[in-house]
Each structure stands twice: as C-alpha cells, then as structure tokens.
Amino acid sequence: MSRSILFVAGEALPFIKTGGLADVIGSLPKSLAKRGHDVRVVIPLYKKVIDKYYDELERIGTIQVHSGWIDQPATYYKAERNGVVYYFIEHQYYFERESLYGYQDDGERFAFFQRAVLDMIYFIDWWPNVIHSNDWQTGMIPLMCHAIYADDYRYQAIRHVYTIHNLAFQGNFGVDMLPSCLGLDYSYFDNGSIKFDSGISFMKAGIVYADKITTVSPTYSNEILTETYGERMDAVLRYRREDLWGIVNGIDTTEWNPKTDKMLVKNYDVRSWQTGKKANKKALQEELGLEVREDVMLIGLVSRLTNQKGVYLITDRIQEIMGLDIQFAILGTGETNAENAFAWMENEYKGKAVYYKGYNEELAHRIYAGCDLFLMPSLFEPCGIGQLNAMRYGALPLVRETGGLKDTVQPFNQYTGEGNGFSFWAANADDMVYTIRWATDQYYNNRPGWKGLVKSAMTTDVSWEKSTDVYEELYYTICNWPDN
Predict the structure, then answer these.
(1) Rounded distance, CA 240 to CA 94, Å?
(2) Using CA of residue 329, residue 335, residue 338, residue 340, what is the dihedral sign?
(3) Strand order across the 159-164 sheet
(4) CA 376 from centroid of its chain's CA atoms
(5) Planar angle of CA 349, 327, 403, nearest 5 degrees
(6) How many Å from the N-terminal Cα to the C-terminal Cα in the chain?
(7) In sequence order, what are the residues at sequence separation of 6 or more whose Cβ sits closer than 8 angstroms to the Cβ of residue 125?
(8) How far apart are CA 187 and CA 178, in angstroms?
(9) CA-to-CA dists, residue 259 to 268, 271, 298, 481, angstroms
C-alpha cells in the first residue's frame, strides 16, 4: 500500500526560516523519506526563496485558484532535497514581501495558500494518504478539504494530522473571512466549531477538524489542557484530548554535528571535546571582542528576545549575573526593551558581555561550540531546539522546567552524577540566578562532575529517530497502513 504524506507549512529549511517550525519541516520529512515513505512538502514561494534558489526550481504550471471572492493565479514549482519533493506556490502580491508573516492581510494570504495547496493535489494528480498541516497558517486545510471537495472521494479519503508548534499564535480573523476568502458558509461559525470570540480561528479549525492533533513535546501537550498554558483553547483541546499526541522534536544531526561542522575553527566529538571546545571558545572570544580567557565559564544565549523566552528574568538581574566570574555572549533580536537592556549590558561590561543584534546562522553554530553553558529560561516552550543543539555541541543547557525543555533536559544530580544539564522550576529570576550560581560553582569546583555532564549531554539522542517512530505509529492509526 502507498505510504504518502504531504507536509504543509508556512516555512521549511533549507529554503526559509523564521523559527523552529522550519527546522521541523526540514528534518522530519527527510527522516520519514529515509524509511521509504513518499514524502512531499509545500510552502509559499517567498521573495527570499526566489532570491536564493529560483534557478534551482522547476516550474510545473499555473492554474486559477477560486476561494470565496479570491480569483487569483497560482504558479507551482518544485525541487528535491534528500529524497523529499518540495513544492512552492508563487503569487507575487501575496508572498514576495520582505517578511513571511505579520501583515494586515495575513488571513487572505494564507486562505489563498491553503486553497492553492488543495487544488495542487488535483493539478499534479498525486493523492497523499495524509496531509500533515502545521500551525495556524494551515489550520483550515482539514475543514476546507472535507467541505469544499465533499463530492470527490479522493479528497475525502485523505486523513489529516495537525501539529501545534506554538499555541500562542492562532490565526484569529473576522468572521467575514468565511465567505470572502475561504469559500465557506457561516454555519461553521454558527455551530461554534471555528468560532473564537466574535471571529474565527484558523488554529481552532485545525484542532476541531483534523483526525489527530500533535504538539511538539509530551509535557506541552499536557500543559495546553490547562488555563495557564491553553491560550483560551484549553476547552476545545480537552474535548480532543484522546486524539492529542505529544511528540518531542529532534534536530538534524547531520547539519548540527561538531565533528563535521565547517563553521567551527576546530571540529570535535565526545572523545575530543575538551580540546575542541577550548579552541572554539578562544576563537569566539576573539571574534566577539571578549577577553581571551581559557578558564572562564562562557554562557551563551541564542534566542528570539521575547517575554516567552524568559529574557526579562535575565535583564532584571544583569548585575547579579555579571557579578559572577563568567562571560556572556547573546545572539538574537526581538522586543525593544530586551534589545536595549542587552546593549546596555555589553557597554557596561566590556570584555565580559557581548550582544549581537540580529540572527547569524554561522555565529549561532560557533556560540554553541564555544560556550560552556547555554541559557534558556523560557516561561513556556512547546519543544525548543536550542537546548538540543547545545547538548550536541557539549554546551550544558540551563533551562526552566516547562514543555519540551522538561522532556529533554535531565537536571544534574550531584550525588549520582546523572543528568545532561541544569534546570529550575519556578518562573522567577531568583530561582534562575540561584541555578546559574550553582552551575558556575560546579564548573569551577567540580571538574570531574562537569566533564561527566558534558559527555552525557553529547551522547544524548537528539536525533529524529525515536520521534519518527512515533509519527509512523500515529499515521498507522488513521491510515490502516500495514506494518511492513
């Protein structure tokens, strides 16, 4: 029996990225393809993709897409990477912009995208067993597939999985979106299935109409059933709790591999990490203008600078943290208050702290390789990728016990030597600073314990293998695939 999966998302590596969603869509399909599945991915054709990859894309053709009052052409392109076919939907006005999201007409843009995805299936005559939709930008696909194509048995045979990568971003729009952009009648608002306040929610539609819902870690799947973390979707999620799976993310261990990473000055593995990290720390200090000290504990932070990421726990206690015998390297951009606070920190603690505003992929690799401790004090974190990258590079994660951070970081037990990082539970700066102090003490005064932690972190399985097993099991439950 055919085993075919179409991933639909707003972004995907290696072509375009704004967050962890792109990492998942760049890695999970590749892992499934290696197991013999026919896996394909479709995303919008953004300006940045055109600028970098247009000459590598194969044009398939153009059709007219009708969705409500929308009557626009969609041109399809494709490319292949690592056994996965990637499709791109071109529309100059909707997608050739400087940013991917954050526009007033996002609802219209992604209504068009979702309808163009479903029309593409007919156009290329490829009928997947599963459409795996991701985040609010694709949440309407299960409903649109069943409602708009109700008379076509081929669409009705498709099963739907919907993954929530971050429940805080829901795609909430006015109810007039139903007839104007989605081609749906008001009954779906009147019966409450996609109603959210006085409008509609793309994410709620995915939760209600998909066959199965997943989140990107087991702990987060339980957290979002509560009012605290449920972002006002907790009631509908509790209603679907029997169909809700929590599957932790992995990382691409080929790309994130200190043994082969060409962005590092010296490669290393679990057997040679001491000399490798020593060389990369020295190079990072020189690159960023930090005092060159082999013995100092270097803390790294690679993150969006938002409240969710817990950055204000750090900015509230800058003086206490920098009073320790440490160095601090920060890479990221986000809220103005956080950016200003870290800029002040760099100016105040020249040679001890540095803030690189923006995102630089190569520098991110070098921070993971050069730092000793990686700070990730998120207030909530569906899964998190940074702590997985850090462990892979022998930088011990220091995290708050929430979501995927709790599922992937085992706190150090000084009595048994077990663990692969450090953690604290309460979402306050006191507990974070206490844990940083304790980690600093371990770094300077318990070198055998620290070395054991690094080895444990670097040998933690952060690949997609175990998670791919679970995704296969999930697909089997809704498609009745044979086991072989």
Answers:
(1) 33
(2) positive
(3) 58-67, 70-81, 84-90, 38-44, 4-8, 130-134, 159-164, 212-215, 244-246
(4) 15
(5) 115
(6) 9
(7) none
(8) 10
(9) 5, 10, 21, 38
Residue indicated by tokens 């080895």:
455
pTM of the model: 0.93
Residues 290, 295: Cα–Cα separation, whole Å: 13
Reported as type and span, the H/E element at residue 213 is strand 212-215
Find where tokens 């800029």 sit. Answer: 343
CA distance 292 to 267: 20
Contact 304, 332 (CB under 8 A): yes
> What's the token pair of residue 248?
């932790």
DSSP per residue, 69-88:
TEEEEEEEEEEEETTEEEEE
d(CA 374, CA 418): 18
CB distance 340 to 414 below 8 Å: no
Going along the chain from its start, the domains and CATH numbers come out as: 4-250+465-479 (3.40.50.2000), 273-458 (3.40.50.2000)
Q: What is the DSSP string of 419-445?
A: -SBEEE-SSSHHHHHHHHHHHHHHHHH
Containing H/E element for 200?
strand 199-201
Q: For every one of its 484 residues, what pLDDT tens digit does the chain have, with 9 covering 90 and above?
A: 458 999 999 999 999 998 889 999 999 999 999 999 999 999 999 999 999 999 999 999 999 999 999 999 999 999 999 999 999 999 999 999 999 999 999 999 999 999 999 999 999 999 999 999 999 999 999 999 999 999 999 999 999 999 999 999 999 999 999 999 999 999 999 999 999 999 999 999 999 999 999 999 999 999 999 999 999 999 999 999 999 999 999 999 999 999 999 999 999 999 999 999 999 999 999 999 999 999 999 999 999 999 999 999 999 999 999 999 999 999 999 999 999 999 999 999 999 999 999 889 899 999 999 999 999 999 999 999 999 999 999 999 999 999 999 999 999 998 999 999 999 999 999 999 999 999 999 999 999 999 999 999 999 999 999 999 999 999 999 987 655 4
DSSP letter string over 96-142?
-SSSSS--TTHHHHHHHHHHHHHHHHHHHT---SEEEEESGGGTTHH
